[in-house]
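Quarterly update from the structural biology core.
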Amino acid sequence: MATAGTRSASVMTVLRAGLTVLAVAGLGIDAYVHFDLAGNYAPIRTSTLSQADLFRAEAVVSILAALVIVVRARRYTAVIAALVSGSALFVLVLYRYCNVGKIGPLPNMYEPVWFTEKSLAAIGEGAAFVAAGLLAVLAERRHHVQDK
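Predicted structure, tokenized:
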């Protein structure tokens, strides 16, 4: 017969697994969109970097963040995934609404429109940010409960 503690542990395991899947899916969507769109942004560049370079780097970092939370599910890996997805969402929204201009080696990436893939990236990044943030909180909670 299952005790309340075992049921609670089972629910938490399922919750963590679901949040991990959501974070990985969101990061995967982000990576796909950035790889898919990168070629379109090659002309937007400085002497050092193009927006395509930045898009490809973002895609690779998103894939790595997704892999680390699958391979090593810890609080710090969830925080890494939350930072990657949250910063990507921040930059997407920033350059959608603000004409920041060129900053050092970064080209001016201002694009004041929403389109399907940009919206998809924002949804993926947002979902990954929330899910990874909750994973970090749940991991912290688990350590506090185990310490008692």
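Residues 30-147 form one domain.
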